[in-house]
Amino acid sequence: MTIETVTTAPIEGQKPGTSGLRKKTPVFMQPGYLENYVQAVIEGVGGVSGKTIVVGGDGRYFNDRAIATILRMLSANGARKAIVGQSGLLSTPAASNLIRTRHTDGGIILSASHNPGGEHGDFGLKFNTPNGGPAAENVTDAIFARSTEITQYKILSDEAPALDVIGTSTLGEMEVEIVDPVTDYVTMMEGLVDFDRLRALFKSGFRMRFDAMHAVTGPYAKAILEDRLGAEPGTVVNGTPLPDFAGHHPDPNPVYAKELFDLMASADAPDMGAASDGDGDRNIVLGKGLPVSPSDSLAVLAANLHFAKGYTTGLKGIARSMPTSRAADRVAEKLGVGMYETPTGWKFFGNLLDAGRVTICGEESAGTGSSHVREKDGLWAVLVWMDIVAARGESVAEILRDHWQRFGRDYYTRHDYEGIASSAGDELMADLRARIETLPGQSFAGLTVTSADDFAYADPTDGSVSRKQGIRVNFDNGSRAVFRLSGTGTEGATLRVYLERFEADLTKQDMDPQEALADIIAAAGELASIQQRTGRNAPDVIT
Ligand code: G6P
Ligand code: ZN
């Protein structure tokens, strides 16, 4: 056993974004790139000497080799133990669960989430702290700072153990425990939703399709839906994780999960459709002929959470990211519980969950989760929806329409302009920022701005402040447009424009969101000169 100390120099651009460091896979595979960043993580979190770290990823290209390097570096840096998912697999929520239940000192999760995989796709690495959640900004700042000062990294000369055999071995002085990635997760779900009730639901003829998009949730969904709950074989499609996700974007939106959306709109639609993303933290739920928008999903889950087995005592509070629609706010008000509006990024929910202020959190980007872990959890959301369907004896579409009737409907859409020049994105945002104060009173495509601001968040638990989190513009018809740049892309910039309007009139709740929001879409386009600045006539993705 030899610990090598390798001389290195800082590599530019190792700055973690919304969810850790994301880069093109060939960038991550450059000699020393991963090593530099892992050493920066190790030092940025205060070293790993004597610590236990969970390691796993979504199985994308380079996952296995990256894990082998990470294990050798953890050992060389004095870690006591690494807990690794078999074959290097761990969904993000399953990793969060292991970090928490095994009382570890954190985890390294390898994923670029919903971004494509394969040799020329994307790769990512993020560190989760002992609470199971993504590292907060003070930690990611420290990691970035280390990456700019690094002069050497430590790595063990020995080979890492094979990852496919469950059991314990040693690597240098570090213990390596390879665990089944699914077992603990299934146990946790069993405590949160009523498996007996769900078995009875499938027995009564309930049919569903779960599209795992060739990504990490396949084994989890099969184990729970087909093996434990008795869903017919074939309920889970695209259920084998592939390093390149079969060439697709593993993102459960109408563009990349088109087959599922088409099926649910057709005459052959099963009772429920669902899908998850690359690393298993996102979800989409669809009823027959009616997809549930992620913002609505948060509101419906919050309003009905007490039907699910693990939440019968109700909820403490709700949190949503700022660009998520205000549908959940109406539920919080009705329930008389706290409502928190945070910047985009799951890491902002961690403190609220740890402080016991909220039970459920959600984002427009197809993320919902609860206090059971510190990440969003795709399969959890799907199972809770099913538990509510079973408990209420109503379909997904009935539950959603009933929700709109009781609370009103928040029409919602997000328009993405992907891969535009970074300079164009930056200039568009800078121009909006410069004009914020002058916007109120001005009209665009027939709508007048009533207020505008640049969202800043002060964390109520530790007082930390995050500024410049997106431009919010409110119009005189009660509608809202939000502009921000994505923090999860790997190339160029992605402009996200979030659009919403509240509709209380029961007779006007069945419109296509694009039609219902046509005037605000036009106003947002004119206000930010989107066409001129991006050179695009239409968004690349509409959710
Ligand atoms: C990831 C994060 C989410 C975030 C989403 C979109 O899934 O975990 O918290 O909402 O990316 O982020 P973006 O910065 O691309 O809008
Ligand atoms: Zn994800």
UniProtKB/TrEMBL annotation:
Record's catalysed reaction(s): alpha-D-glucose 1-phosphate = alpha-D-glucose 6-phosphate
Gene Ontology MF term list: phosphoglucomutase activity
Enzyme class: isomerase
Keyword Iron annotated: no
EC number: 5.4.2.2
Family: Belongs to the phosphohexose mutase family.
Name of protein: phosphoglucomutase (alpha-D-glucose-1,6-bisphosphate-dependent)
Organism in which the protein naturally occurs: Terrihabitans rhizophilus
Lineage: Bacteria, Pseudomonadati, Pseudomonadota, Alphaproteobacteria, Hyphomicrobiales
